[in-house]
Amino acid sequence: MYSSEITQASNFVKGVDTSFLIILGISFFFLIFLTVLMLVFIYKYNRKRNPKATQIEGSTKLEVLWTVIPFLLTMLMFYFGWAGYKPMLKAPDDAMEVTVYGRMWNFMFEYENGKRTDTLFLPKDKPVKLNLVAMDVLHSLYIPAFRVKQDMVPGKENNFMWFEPQKKGTYELFCAEYCGLQHSYMYSYVKVMEDSSFQSWMVDTTQVVAENIESPTATGRRIMQNIGCFACHTVDGSKLVGPSFKGIWGEEVTVTTGGEKRQVLVDEEYIRRSIFDPNADIVDGFNKGLMLSYEGQLSEEDVENIIEYLKTLH
Question: Which of 1, 129, 154, 179 could cross-link to 91 by cystine, CB 3.0-4.6 Å?
Fold first, then answer.
């Protein structure tokens, strides 16, 4: 069950909410005040009550008032907005760092010990710095309960967000920038745990052992699920962003290589090249540049497991 209480879920909730409520309050005040004033003027100065228009001379006092008051209100809103935003700009030196990879269309979280997940696990009451890496197009990491959102810009250095989770629970995390066909499916969750539970999870080798006793086929499918392969490729023969995996193994496909079309056999060499150099051979009927390399993100063992899984998709 997901946490429904999001008040003070992070250290930035109070500052963001205060700024929002002040701006909302001022906006509602003027909406009501100006609407009432307009109705009064319509009633008091309609044609029946005021058949002859009265010329009103300029008033320096009024001009000063409607200049100074909006300026002061704007400065008030700016102050609270800046007070809530400024602490987000510098992460504490002792913050735990997690690298977030965003690509069409999934998030992957890598911890300092090399552990990778598709759900963000965090310790309660500990500062966390998320280093944001966009692998292809512009994404935006948004955690509504924590009141934090940051664009993930390809090639941008020192792109990060930080916060301190303050309530245990499970919270939504998703992409808030339209990034392509499956944008609406690009979501995950943040699971906040007590620090002791988190530390146990970090050093837990049960998952690794389980992966080792899984069949290569099951492991390959899990890896592909985690890195978002099924957002672009189907296993039922239907066409999506990329070619379907169904029945692909051992078949010949038409590809464009270096501007020339040719027939290639889908074997281990072809799969490896497609993973690490996806623009080398473009399957006929599909576009170049939609997939980026997984170089450095997948090991040789990962690729071998993926190949074993693809062999089963008859």
Answer: 129
Separation of alpha carbons 113 and 98, rounded Å? 10
Q: H helices within 12-139, ranges in order?
A: 13-44, 60-85
What would the pLDDT profile of 5-53 be if each residue is shown by its tens digit? 445 899 999 999 999 999 999 999 999 999 999 999 888 888 888 788 7
Q: Which two tokens stand for residue 178?
A: 């339209």
On whether the CB atoms of residues 169 and 190 are closer than 8 A, the answer is no
> Which tens digits make up the pLDDT trace of 84-96?
999 999 999 999 9
Q: What is the 3-state secondary structure (H, E, C) of 194-252?
A: CHHHHHHHHHCCHHHHHHHHCCHHHHHHHHHHHCCHHHCCCCCCCCCCCCCCCCCCCCE
Structure tokens at 53: 């228009």
In the sheet with 260-265, reading across from the earlier edge strand, the strands are 260-265, 252-257, 282-283
pLDDT, averaged across the chain = 87
**Euclidean distance between CA atoms 109 and 118, whole angstroms:** 6
The structure tokens 């090639």 sit at 155
Q: Residue 122: is its pLDDT beyond 50?
A: yes
Strands 160-163 and 128-134, sheet pairing: antiparallel
Q: Determine the number of helices (DSSP H) and then strands (DSSP E) in the chain.
A: 7, 13
- Amino acid (1-letter code) at residue 86: K
DSSP 3-state helix, strand, coil percentages of the chain (rounded to 5)?
Answer: 40, 25, 40
Cβ atoms of 167 and 2 closer than 8 Å? no
Three-class SS state of 275: helix
CATH of domain 214-311: 1.10.760.10
CA distance 164 to 12: 8
> Domain locations in the chain?
96-207, 214-311
CATH of domain 96-207: 2.60.40.420
pLDDT of the residue at 210: 46
